[in-house]
Amino acid sequence: MRWAIVQFIFVQLILTGCAEQPLVANISTAPVELPGGNPYLQERRSVSTEAQRRFARAQVLIEEKEWQSARLELQGLTKSYPELSGPSLNLALVNRQLGNVNEAQHWFKNSISINARNIRAYDQYGVFLRGQGRFDEAETIYLQALERWEGSAETHRNIGILYDLYVGKSEEALGHYYRYQALTGGTDREVAAWIADLERRRRSAGQGAGS
């Protein structure tokens, strides 16, 4: 069910060589990367071994659902390494899990301000805003993400859900679902079902108008 999407998401910072490379672990929306496409993943940034170690410790706490401890660990990371956007994004998501709405919003914004190319920060901030009923703001954030990387399949899926279920823009939703399928090879059966449903509704509406 689309209504069950995104109960909780945590972001794992994976460091390949010297790159700061966040991956979103999502219960029902798997992230899709196009090789060489995501502007965030094209950046090369030196990250110390100590930062990697501390982030790994925070990740363990998240996996064990030790939210308060994870929050403290991530807060320390943001102070020690303010140039990294991944810890701020994780801190936003942990605060959302804890119900700290204002803190979560602050850290979403902070992550984007640190690195405007972090597409995942936009995506998850959009999900957060949608959950708050702030649909216009969520749309703006998703569109900003697509301006930075039109090939973000996850963003097309998320904005499609927003248009489809929350703001009644069926045609726009259909366009984004089709784009998502094109970017992912059309293998998502759930999205294929959503497309079929919207197409049926469009045909029905057309037939009704012509009767």
If you had to describe this structure to a student in words, what would you say it looks like?
With 211 residues, this protein is mainly α. The chain has a single domain, classed as Alpha Horseshoe (Serine Threonine Protein Phosphatase 5, Tetratricopeptide repeat). Helices cover 64% and strands 6% of the residues. It is built from nine helices and two strands, in the order E-E-H-H-H-H-H-H-H-H-H. The protein has a two-stranded antiparallel ribbon. A hairpin with a 6-residue loop joins strand 1 and strand 2. Helix 2 runs antiparallel to helix 3 and helix 4 packs antiparallel against helix 5. The longest helix is centred in the last third of the chain and has 22 residues. It starts with 8 loop residues before the first strand and ends with a helix. The N terminus is likely disordered.
Please give a handful of descriptors for the protein shown:
two-stranded antiparallel sheet, mainly alpha, 211 residues, 9 helices, Serine Threonine Protein Phosphatase 5, Tetratricopeptide repeat, disordered N terminus
What is the strand and helix layout of this fold?
Layout: E1 9-14, E2 21-26, H1 49-63, H2 67-80, H3 85-98, H4 101-114, H5 119-131, H6 135-148, H7 153-166, H8 170-184, H9 189-210
Antiparallel strand pairs: 1-2
